[in-house]
Protein backbone atom coordinates (compact mmCIF):
# COMPACT_ATOMS: atom_id res chain seq x y z
CA UNK A 1 0.00 0.00 0.00
CA UNK A 2 1.20 3.50 -0.83
CA UNK A 3 2.62 5.61 2.00
CA UNK A 4 1.59 8.89 0.33
CA UNK A 5 -1.32 10.86 1.72
CA UNK A 6 -3.53 12.85 -0.67
CA UNK A 7 -2.27 16.39 -1.36
CA UNK A 8 -3.48 19.32 0.71
CA UNK A 9 -4.36 22.72 -0.80
CA UNK A 10 -2.49 25.85 0.14
CA UNK A 11 -3.40 27.10 3.60
CA UNK A 12 -2.55 29.46 6.44
CA UNK A 13 0.81 28.69 8.13
CA UNK A 14 -0.87 28.11 11.51
CA UNK A 15 -4.59 27.76 10.94
CA UNK A 16 -4.09 25.72 7.76
CA UNK A 17 -7.56 25.26 6.21
CA UNK A 18 -9.73 25.93 9.25
CA UNK A 19 -10.41 29.64 8.70
CA UNK A 20 -11.17 29.44 4.97
CA UNK A 21 -13.35 26.38 5.33
CA UNK A 22 -15.31 27.87 8.24
CA UNK A 23 -15.91 31.17 6.42
CA UNK A 24 -16.88 29.77 2.98
CA UNK A 25 -17.01 25.95 2.86
CA UNK A 26 -18.32 25.48 -0.69
CA UNK A 27 -15.79 27.88 -2.20
CA UNK A 28 -13.07 26.07 -0.28
CA UNK A 29 -14.10 22.75 -1.84
CA UNK A 30 -14.05 24.18 -5.36
CA UNK A 31 -10.68 25.89 -4.86
CA UNK A 32 -9.17 22.78 -3.26
CA UNK A 33 -10.36 20.57 -6.10
CA UNK A 34 -8.97 22.98 -8.71
CA UNK A 35 -5.58 22.96 -6.95
CA UNK A 36 -5.29 19.30 -5.90
CA UNK A 37 -7.63 17.28 -8.08
CA UNK A 38 -10.49 15.00 -7.13
CA UNK A 39 -8.96 13.67 -3.90
CA UNK A 40 -7.38 15.92 -1.30
CA UNK A 41 -6.70 16.35 2.39
CA UNK A 42 -8.15 19.00 4.68
CA UNK A 43 -5.61 19.96 7.32
CA UNK A 44 -7.54 21.12 10.39
CA UNK A 45 -5.28 21.82 13.39
CA UNK A 46 -7.81 20.86 16.06
CA UNK A 47 -8.95 17.51 14.60
CA UNK A 48 -7.61 14.69 12.43
CA UNK A 49 -7.11 15.28 8.74
CA UNK A 50 -10.29 14.90 6.68
CA UNK A 51 -10.07 13.35 3.22
CA UNK A 52 -12.41 14.68 0.53
CA UNK A 53 -13.36 12.57 -2.51
CA UNK A 54 -14.78 14.26 -5.59
CA UNK A 55 -15.19 11.57 -8.25
CA UNK A 56 -17.95 8.98 -8.89
CA UNK A 57 -15.41 6.13 -9.03
CA UNK A 58 -14.31 6.94 -5.48
CA UNK A 59 -17.94 7.06 -4.33
CA UNK A 60 -18.36 3.56 -5.72
CA UNK A 61 -15.38 2.38 -3.69
CA UNK A 62 -16.79 3.78 -0.45
CA UNK A 63 -20.47 2.91 -0.96
CA UNK A 64 -20.25 -0.37 -2.86
CA UNK A 65 -17.04 -2.25 -3.58
CA UNK A 66 -15.16 -1.47 -0.31
CA UNK A 67 -18.16 -0.64 1.87
CA UNK A 68 -16.94 -2.72 4.83
CA UNK A 69 -13.80 -0.57 5.07
CA UNK A 70 -15.88 2.51 5.89
CA UNK A 71 -18.28 3.23 8.76
CA UNK A 72 -20.57 6.00 9.91
CA UNK A 73 -19.03 8.96 11.74
CA UNK A 74 -19.37 9.76 15.43
CA UNK A 75 -21.22 12.98 14.56
CA UNK A 76 -24.19 11.00 13.20
CA UNK A 77 -24.36 8.88 16.34
CA UNK A 78 -24.46 12.04 18.47
CA UNK A 79 -27.44 13.29 16.51
CA UNK A 80 -29.35 10.10 15.75
CA UNK A 81 -28.19 7.56 18.33
CA UNK A 82 -28.45 4.09 16.83
CA UNK A 83 -31.11 4.97 14.27
CA UNK A 84 -31.13 3.90 10.64
CA UNK A 85 -28.84 6.74 9.52
CA UNK A 86 -26.07 5.79 11.96
CA UNK A 87 -26.49 2.06 12.72
CA UNK A 88 -24.03 -0.45 11.31
CA UNK A 89 -23.85 -4.13 10.40
CA UNK A 90 -26.56 -6.51 11.56
CA UNK A 91 -28.26 -3.81 13.63
CA UNK A 92 -28.74 -1.72 10.49
CA UNK A 93 -30.00 -4.72 8.50
CA UNK A 94 -32.57 -5.52 11.18
CA UNK A 95 -33.80 -1.93 11.28
CA UNK A 96 -33.98 -1.65 7.50
CA UNK A 97 -36.03 -4.84 7.27
CA UNK A 98 -38.48 -3.60 9.89
CA UNK A 99 -38.94 -0.16 8.30
CA UNK A 100 -38.82 -1.12 4.60
CA UNK A 101 -42.55 -2.06 4.28
CA UNK A 102 -43.47 1.57 5.00
CA UNK A 103 -41.60 2.65 1.87
CA UNK A 104 -42.60 0.06 -0.72
CA UNK A 105 -44.00 1.80 -3.79
CA UNK A 106 -47.55 0.48 -3.29
CA UNK A 107 -47.55 1.76 0.28
CA UNK A 108 -46.00 5.12 -0.64
CA UNK A 109 -48.58 5.75 -3.37
CA UNK A 110 -51.28 5.50 -0.71
CA UNK A 111 -49.84 8.57 1.03
CA UNK A 112 -50.66 10.83 -1.93
CA UNK A 113 -54.03 12.13 -0.75
CA UNK A 114 -52.65 13.06 2.68
CA UNK A 115 -49.72 14.86 1.06
CA UNK A 116 -52.06 16.95 -1.07
CA UNK A 117 -54.53 17.58 1.77
CA UNK A 118 -51.77 18.83 4.10
CA UNK A 119 -50.50 21.16 1.39
CA UNK A 120 -53.96 22.54 0.66
CA UNK A 121 -54.55 23.20 4.38
CA UNK A 122 -51.31 25.16 4.60
CA UNK A 123 -52.19 27.19 1.50
CA UNK A 124 -55.30 28.43 3.29
CA UNK A 125 -52.93 30.47 5.49
CA UNK A 126 -51.23 32.13 2.51
CA UNK A 127 -52.38 35.59 1.41
CA UNK A 128 -51.97 37.38 -1.87
CA UNK A 129 -48.90 39.63 -1.95
CA UNK A 130 -47.34 38.54 1.34
CA UNK A 131 -43.69 37.48 1.57
CA UNK A 132 -42.81 34.13 3.16
CA UNK A 133 -39.48 32.39 3.68
CA UNK A 134 -39.73 29.18 1.66
CA UNK A 135 -37.06 27.41 3.72
CA UNK A 136 -39.15 27.85 6.85
CA UNK A 137 -42.46 27.33 5.07
CA UNK A 138 -41.42 24.07 3.40
CA UNK A 139 -40.00 22.69 6.66
CA UNK A 140 -43.30 23.34 8.40
CA UNK A 141 -45.24 21.75 5.55
CA UNK A 142 -43.10 18.63 5.22
CA UNK A 143 -43.22 18.08 8.98
CA UNK A 144 -47.02 18.19 8.81
CA UNK A 145 -46.97 15.73 5.90
CA UNK A 146 -44.61 13.41 7.76
CA UNK A 147 -46.97 13.20 10.71
CA UNK A 148 -50.10 12.81 8.58
CA UNK A 149 -48.59 9.97 6.54
CA UNK A 150 -46.02 8.03 8.57
CA UNK A 151 -47.33 8.90 12.05
CA UNK A 152 -51.02 8.84 11.21
CA UNK A 153 -51.94 12.06 13.01
CA UNK A 154 -52.43 15.76 12.35
CA UNK A 155 -50.05 18.19 14.02
CA UNK A 156 -51.38 21.14 15.96
CA UNK A 157 -49.61 24.51 15.47
CA UNK A 158 -48.00 24.18 18.91
CA UNK A 159 -46.62 20.72 18.17
CA UNK A 160 -45.36 21.95 14.80
CA UNK A 161 -43.34 24.72 16.45
CA UNK A 162 -41.86 22.57 19.22
CA UNK A 163 -40.94 19.66 17.00
CA UNK A 164 -39.53 21.78 14.24
CA UNK A 165 -37.37 23.81 16.63
CA UNK A 166 -36.03 20.59 18.13
CA UNK A 167 -35.43 18.96 14.74
CA UNK A 168 -33.74 22.03 13.27
CA UNK A 169 -31.36 22.16 16.23
CA UNK A 170 -29.79 18.85 15.21
CA UNK A 171 -28.13 20.77 12.39
CA UNK A 172 -26.19 22.94 14.84
CA UNK A 173 -23.47 20.38 15.58
CA UNK A 174 -22.59 20.44 11.89
CA UNK A 175 -22.18 24.21 11.57
CA UNK A 176 -18.76 24.74 9.91
CA UNK A 177 -17.52 27.03 12.67
CA UNK A 178 -18.24 24.30 15.26
CA UNK A 179 -17.48 21.16 13.25
CA UNK A 180 -13.79 22.05 12.80
CA UNK A 181 -13.27 22.39 16.56
CA UNK A 182 -12.39 19.59 19.02
CA UNK A 183 -15.39 17.60 20.24
CA UNK A 184 -14.81 18.56 23.86
CA UNK A 185 -14.92 22.33 23.22
CA UNK A 186 -18.33 23.86 24.11
CA UNK A 187 -19.78 26.34 21.62
CA UNK A 188 -23.20 28.03 21.44
CA UNK A 189 -24.12 25.84 18.47
CA UNK A 190 -23.20 22.69 20.36
CA UNK A 191 -25.20 23.77 23.38
CA UNK A 192 -28.22 24.31 21.12
CA UNK A 193 -27.59 20.90 19.59
CA UNK A 194 -27.60 19.17 22.98
CA UNK A 195 -30.74 21.01 24.04
CA UNK A 196 -32.41 19.98 20.79
CA UNK A 197 -31.49 16.33 21.24
CA UNK A 198 -32.99 16.37 24.74
CA UNK A 199 -36.14 18.17 23.59
CA UNK A 200 -36.64 15.94 20.57
CA UNK A 201 -36.28 12.79 22.63
CA UNK A 202 -38.88 14.12 25.05
CA UNK A 203 -41.21 14.73 22.11
CA UNK A 204 -40.79 11.24 20.62
CA UNK A 205 -41.30 9.60 24.03
CA UNK A 206 -44.57 11.49 24.33
CA UNK A 207 -45.55 10.33 20.84
CA UNK A 208 -44.83 6.71 21.75
CA UNK A 209 -46.79 6.93 24.99
CA UNK A 210 -49.74 8.56 23.24
CA UNK A 211 -49.67 6.01 20.43
CA UNK A 212 -49.54 3.08 22.87
CA UNK A 213 -52.57 4.50 24.67
CA UNK A 214 -54.50 4.95 21.42
CA UNK A 215 -53.55 1.47 20.21
CA UNK A 216 -54.83 -0.09 23.42
CA UNK A 217 -58.09 1.79 23.07
CA UNK A 218 -58.47 0.79 19.42
CA UNK A 219 -57.68 -2.85 20.21
CA UNK A 220 -60.46 -2.86 22.77
CA UNK A 221 -62.84 -1.71 20.02
CA UNK A 222 -61.48 -4.35 17.64
CA UNK A 223 -60.86 -1.75 14.90
CA UNK A 224 -58.33 -2.39 12.09
CA UNK A 225 -54.90 -0.80 12.37
CA UNK A 226 -53.38 1.17 9.50
CA UNK A 227 -49.72 0.79 8.59
CA UNK A 228 -47.77 3.71 10.02
CA UNK A 229 -44.36 4.24 11.55
CA UNK A 230 -45.47 4.40 15.17
CA UNK A 231 -47.51 1.20 15.07
CA UNK A 232 -44.78 -0.56 13.07
CA UNK A 233 -42.21 0.31 15.73
CA UNK A 234 -44.52 -0.47 18.63
CA UNK A 235 -45.17 -3.94 17.23
CA UNK A 236 -41.47 -4.80 17.27
CA UNK A 237 -41.53 -4.69 21.07
CA UNK A 238 -43.71 -7.81 21.10
CA UNK A 239 -41.69 -10.09 18.80
CA UNK A 240 -39.77 -13.03 20.18
CA UNK A 241 -37.74 -14.00 17.10
CA UNK A 242 -34.74 -11.75 17.76
CA UNK A 243 -35.96 -9.09 15.32
CA UNK A 244 -37.38 -6.79 17.99
CA UNK A 245 -36.14 -3.28 18.68
CA UNK A 246 -35.33 -2.03 22.15
CA UNK A 247 -37.09 1.05 23.52
CA UNK A 248 -33.89 3.03 22.94
CA UNK A 249 -33.70 1.88 19.32
CA UNK A 250 -37.33 2.83 18.76
CA UNK A 251 -36.64 6.31 20.11
CA UNK A 252 -33.57 6.56 17.87
CA UNK A 253 -35.66 5.62 14.82
CA UNK A 254 -38.20 8.31 15.62
CA UNK A 255 -35.54 10.98 16.12
CA UNK A 256 -34.02 9.94 12.78
CA UNK A 257 -37.34 9.99 10.95
CA UNK A 258 -38.53 13.29 12.43
CA UNK A 259 -35.37 14.95 11.13
CA UNK A 260 -34.56 13.08 7.90
CA UNK A 261 -38.21 12.53 6.99
CA UNK A 262 -38.92 16.21 6.50
CA UNK A 263 -35.68 18.20 6.40
CA UNK A 264 -34.30 16.82 3.12
CA UNK A 265 -37.53 17.18 1.15
CA UNK A 266 -38.12 20.66 2.55
CA UNK A 267 -34.64 21.66 1.38
CA UNK A 268 -35.26 20.29 -2.11
CA UNK A 269 -38.57 22.15 -2.38
CA UNK A 270 -37.19 25.46 -1.13
CA UNK A 271 -34.38 25.48 -3.68
CA UNK A 272 -36.76 24.41 -6.44
CA UNK A 273 -38.96 27.43 -5.77
CA UNK A 274 -35.87 29.64 -5.88
CA UNK A 275 -34.76 28.20 -9.22
CA UNK A 276 -38.22 28.60 -10.73
CA UNK A 277 -38.52 32.18 -9.49
CA UNK A 278 -35.16 33.11 -10.99
CA UNK A 279 -35.91 31.37 -14.33
CA UNK A 280 -39.33 32.75 -15.34
CA UNK A 281 -39.34 31.06 -18.76
CA UNK A 282 -39.04 27.62 -17.13
CA UNK A 283 -41.58 28.63 -14.49
CA UNK A 284 -44.05 29.48 -17.27
CA UNK A 285 -43.61 25.98 -18.73
CA UNK A 286 -44.18 24.52 -15.26
CA UNK A 287 -47.43 26.43 -14.71
CA UNK A 288 -48.65 25.65 -18.22
CA UNK A 289 -48.12 21.91 -17.67
CA UNK A 290 -50.04 22.01 -14.40
CA UNK A 291 -52.93 23.88 -16.02
CA UNK A 292 -53.07 21.37 -18.88
CA UNK A 293 -52.70 18.16 -16.89
CA UNK A 294 -54.63 19.03 -13.74
CA UNK A 295 -57.22 21.45 -15.19
CA UNK A 296 -57.78 22.99 -11.75
CA UNK A 297 -58.13 19.67 -9.91
CA UNK A 298 -56.01 18.44 -7.02
CA UNK A 299 -53.12 16.28 -8.25
CA UNK A 300 -53.33 12.51 -7.86
CA UNK A 301 -50.86 9.65 -8.12
CA UNK A 302 -52.18 8.81 -11.59
CA UNK A 303 -51.21 12.32 -12.81
CA UNK A 304 -47.49 11.74 -12.23
CA UNK A 305 -46.61 10.23 -15.64
CA UNK A 306 -47.98 13.34 -17.37
CA UNK A 307 -46.07 15.80 -15.16
CA UNK A 308 -42.91 15.40 -17.21
CA UNK A 309 -41.71 19.01 -16.96
CA UNK A 310 -42.29 18.99 -13.19
CA UNK A 311 -40.25 15.80 -12.92
CA UNK A 312 -37.33 17.29 -14.89
CA UNK A 313 -37.44 20.50 -12.84
CA UNK A 314 -37.17 18.54 -9.61
CA UNK A 315 -34.41 16.32 -10.98
CA UNK A 316 -32.36 19.32 -12.05
CA UNK A 317 -32.94 21.10 -8.75
CA UNK A 318 -31.66 18.02 -6.89
CA UNK A 319 -28.57 18.11 -9.10
CA UNK A 320 -27.71 21.74 -8.44
CA UNK A 321 -28.73 21.77 -4.77
CA UNK A 322 -28.59 18.21 -3.42
CA UNK A 323 -30.03 18.40 0.13
CA UNK A 324 -27.36 15.97 1.36
CA UNK A 325 -24.45 17.80 -0.20
CA UNK A 326 -21.79 15.57 1.39
CA UNK A 327 -21.84 11.96 2.57
CA UNK A 328 -19.52 11.52 5.56
CA UNK A 329 -17.83 8.23 6.37
CA UNK A 330 -14.94 7.09 8.56
CA UNK A 331 -12.14 4.71 7.56
CA UNK A 332 -12.17 1.51 9.61
CA UNK A 333 -8.86 0.35 8.17
CA UNK A 334 -6.13 1.78 5.96
CA UNK A 335 -7.47 2.22 2.41
CA UNK A 336 -5.70 3.04 -0.85
CA UNK A 337 -7.52 5.15 -3.43
CA UNK A 338 -5.91 6.33 -6.66
CA UNK A 339 -2.43 5.68 -5.26
CA UNK A 340 -3.01 7.55 -2.00
CA UNK A 341 -3.31 6.10 1.49
CA UNK A 342 -6.26 7.00 3.68
CA UNK A 343 -5.30 5.93 7.23
CA UNK A 344 -7.77 4.22 9.55
CA UNK A 345 -9.74 6.39 11.93
CA UNK A 346 -10.15 9.44 9.65
CA UNK A 347 -13.25 11.06 8.23
CA UNK A 348 -13.85 10.75 4.49
CA UNK A 349 -16.29 13.14 2.80
CA UNK A 350 -17.94 12.33 -0.52
CA UNK A 351 -18.69 15.69 -2.13
CA UNK A 352 -22.00 15.04 -3.91
CA UNK A 353 -22.51 18.70 -4.78
CA UNK A 354 -19.12 18.98 -6.46
CA UNK A 355 -19.60 15.91 -8.65
CA UNK A 356 -23.11 16.96 -9.65
CA UNK A 357 -21.73 20.34 -10.74
CA UNK A 358 -18.66 18.92 -12.51
CA UNK A 359 -18.20 19.81 -16.19
CA UNK A 360 -16.71 16.34 -16.73
CA UNK A 361 -20.25 15.01 -16.53
CA UNK A 362 -22.55 17.95 -17.31
CA UNK A 363 -22.52 20.65 -19.98
CA UNK A 364 -22.81 24.11 -18.43
CA UNK A 365 -23.01 22.48 -15.00
CA UNK A 366 -23.91 25.65 -13.07
CA UNK A 367 -26.89 26.41 -15.30
CA UNK A 368 -30.43 25.39 -14.40
CA UNK A 369 -31.43 23.35 -17.45
CA UNK A 370 -34.22 20.84 -16.77
CA UNK A 371 -34.30 19.91 -20.46
CA UNK A 372 -30.90 18.25 -20.09
CA UNK A 373 -32.82 15.27 -18.71
CA UNK A 374 -34.82 14.68 -21.92
CA UNK A 375 -32.07 13.03 -23.97
CA UNK A 376 -31.23 9.94 -21.94
CA UNK A 377 -28.55 11.76 -19.96
CA UNK A 378 -29.02 9.75 -16.77
CA UNK A 379 -28.45 6.44 -18.56
CA UNK A 380 -25.19 7.77 -19.99
CA UNK A 381 -23.83 9.14 -16.72
CA UNK A 382 -21.28 7.13 -14.73
CA UNK A 383 -22.64 5.51 -11.57
CA UNK A 384 -22.73 8.09 -8.75
CA UNK A 385 -22.36 11.12 -11.05
CA UNK A 386 -25.95 11.82 -9.96
CA UNK A 387 -26.49 10.68 -6.39
CA UNK A 388 -28.81 12.99 -4.42
CA UNK A 389 -30.07 9.96 -2.46
CA UNK A 390 -26.69 8.29 -2.00
CA UNK A 391 -26.23 4.81 -3.41
CA UNK A 392 -25.33 1.20 -2.79
CA UNK A 393 -27.10 -0.86 -0.17
CA UNK A 394 -27.58 2.23 2.00
CA UNK A 395 -29.46 4.24 -0.59
CA UNK A 396 -31.97 6.48 1.20
CA UNK A 397 -34.90 4.32 2.30
CA UNK A 398 -37.27 7.25 1.80
CA UNK A 399 -36.31 8.01 -1.82
CA UNK A 400 -39.71 7.10 -3.34
CA UNK A 401 -41.54 8.88 -0.53
CA UNK A 402 -39.48 12.07 -0.94
CA UNK A 403 -39.86 12.23 -4.72
CA UNK A 404 -43.60 11.67 -4.55
CA UNK A 405 -44.01 14.25 -1.79
CA UNK A 406 -41.96 16.86 -3.64
CA UNK A 407 -43.92 16.43 -6.87
CA UNK A 408 -47.29 16.56 -5.09
CA UNK A 409 -46.32 19.71 -3.21
CA UNK A 410 -44.96 21.41 -6.34
CA UNK A 411 -48.10 20.58 -8.30
CA UNK A 412 -50.53 21.59 -5.53
CA UNK A 413 -48.86 24.93 -4.88
CA UNK A 414 -47.90 25.63 -8.49
CA UNK A 415 -51.44 25.53 -9.86
CA UNK A 416 -52.62 28.07 -7.27
CA UNK A 417 -49.69 30.43 -6.77
CA UNK A 418 -46.69 31.95 -8.49
CA UNK A 419 -43.73 32.61 -6.21
CA UNK A 420 -41.50 35.62 -6.94
CA UNK A 421 -37.95 35.98 -5.57
CA UNK A 422 -37.66 38.84 -3.09
CA UNK A 423 -34.00 38.45 -2.13
CA UNK A 424 -31.55 41.26 -2.73
CA UNK A 425 -28.60 39.02 -3.67
CA UNK A 426 -27.71 35.51 -4.71
CA UNK A 427 -28.13 32.76 -2.15
CA UNK A 428 -25.43 32.51 0.49
CA UNK A 429 -25.08 28.77 1.10
CA UNK A 430 -24.01 27.05 4.28
CA UNK A 431 -23.46 23.30 4.77
CA UNK A 432 -25.01 21.55 7.76
CA UNK A 433 -26.44 18.03 7.63
CA UNK A 434 -28.40 19.48 4.72
CA UNK A 435 -27.48 22.40 2.51
CA UNK A 436 -28.99 25.63 3.83
CA UNK A 437 -28.93 29.36 3.23
CA UNK A 438 -27.75 31.98 5.69
CA UNK A 439 -30.59 34.42 5.00
CA UNK A 440 -33.53 32.26 3.96
CA UNK A 441 -35.39 32.16 0.62
CA UNK A 442 -37.98 34.98 0.72
CA UNK A 443 -40.76 34.72 -1.87
CA UNK A 444 -43.70 37.00 -2.65
CA UNK A 445 -46.91 35.03 -3.11
CA UNK A 446 -49.00 35.82 -6.18
CA UNK A 447 -52.33 34.12 -6.84
CA UNK A 448 -52.79 32.54 -10.26
Overview of the structural elements:
The protein is of the alpha+beta class. The protein has a single domain (18-432, 442-447), classed as Cytochrome P450 (Cytochrome p450), CATH 1.10.630.10. 49% of the residues lie in helices and 10% in strands. It contains 18 helices and 12 strands. The strands form 4 sheets. It has a 5-stranded mixed sheet, with helices on both faces. Strands 4-12-9 form a 3-stranded antiparallel sheet. Strand 10 and strand 11 form a beta hairpin. Helix 13 packs across helix 15 and helix 14 runs antiparallel to helix 15. The longest helix has 34 residues, at 188-221. It is globular.
Classified in CATH, the superfamily is: Cytochrome P450
Average of the residue pLDDT scores: 87
Task: Output the structural class.
Answer: alpha+beta
Which segments are poorly predicted (pLDDT under 50) over 5 or more consecutive residues?
Answer: 216-226
- The CATH architecture term is Orthogonal Bundle
Shape descriptor reads globular
The profile of the biggest β sheet is: 5 strands, mixed
**Backbone CA Rg:** 22 Å
Strand order of the largest sheet: 1-2-8-5-3
Under CATH, the topology can be stated as: Cytochrome p450
Number of helices: 18
The CA-CA distance between the termini, in Å, is 63 Å
Helix percent band: 40-55%
Classify the beta-strand content into a percent band.
5-15%
* Number of separate domains: 1
Helix and strand run = HHEEHEHHHHEHHHHHHHHEEEEHHHEEEE
What is the level 1 CATH name?
Mainly Alpha
